[in-house]
Give the backbone structure.
Amino acid sequence: MSRVIVVGGGAAGLMAALFAARQGAQVQLLEQNEKLGKKIYITGKGRCNLTNTASGEAFLANVPRNPRFLYSALGCLDNQGLMALMESLGLPLKEERGGRVFPQSDHASDVTRALENGLRRAGGQIALNARVAELWLQEEQLRGVVMEDGARLPAQAVVVATGGLSYPSTGSTGDGYAFARQAGLEIASTRPCLVGIETEEDWPFGLSGLTLKNVGLCAPGKKKPLFHQQGELLLTHFGISGPLALTLSSLLPQDCHGQPLLLDLKPALTPETLDARLVRDCQAMSRKRLATLAEGLAPHNLAMVLLKLAGLSPELPVNALTRGQRTGLVQTLKGVPLTVKGLRGYQEAVITRGGVSVRQINASTMEAKAVKGLFFAGEVLDVDALTGGFNLQIAFSTGALAGKSAAQACRTEE
């Protein structure tokens, strides 16, 4: 019989199966799709940002929820270990800005292929179009899994690596949460994460597709900002997206409707420095319209929006601009107001926030505390990180530890 069954052929599942097989266990990987790694294929815009070179506390600083839970998993396979493993599997890597690591080929499919080939060489078996319906539990003991057609596959250990709810077209439909509930485990409330933000204001809609580089985005809080970073922002037909917005979506509270935001279009300049620049521009363009001056501060369509927000007419002669109006324009440039309406859905979310409660899981093995032989790995767990390769590293690390522990659990029973 298959001593270890891994449910899910994504990043966590492939790594779990590989580590279990390398420990000498008989491994069967069950994937409901027609191919492995569907979500891996779309990560990093098809290039697969598989990890980040940040180490230790710098890595964990990018994990907003339950970072300490990852100590053992990262001890089993950290970013350096992952990179060495992928290179040994014949996948050359490269590092780009921000410590992001990609395959040299820029093809995400090469990551899946390397792991699949490694698994097959280690003796692991792979079954595609294999949908698990439920866990096979008998008198509260794990016996294996029950397939969609009713067939029962026996196993001494089962690793659930089914992903969350994000990008459901890849097969992430929440099956792992159902398995966890079947085993009596608690599920932390789930929601889309690393996703675009809908705004109450409609002016971004008309500027959809405009990328703003080197801008600041702030989410004010009661005592200190919930978020305050500089980077790239994308205006969309629903509000804002891009790196800054995705990161912010991970840090917003559960009920984020009405959260005010401030967009700083000139973060490198203090209000005083920006005002001094405007004074110089006004002197140089004294006989021109205010629209011309504004277009030197922002792209045309956005410049017109800024003037409207500042209560200024684009037709106003520059030499007629009062000091108070100039101050108002500076304030607008340094803090364009936006209001969160809500987050986009799972269809667009990079990851799922929430999942199987880590309080129910032994962090040193990834085994469910309540059910011997049942392990969880990857996005199905209530652990998530910011963008930059951190989430895939978490999937690989928890998968490695779960697979290794599952194989050891099988040997213990022998």
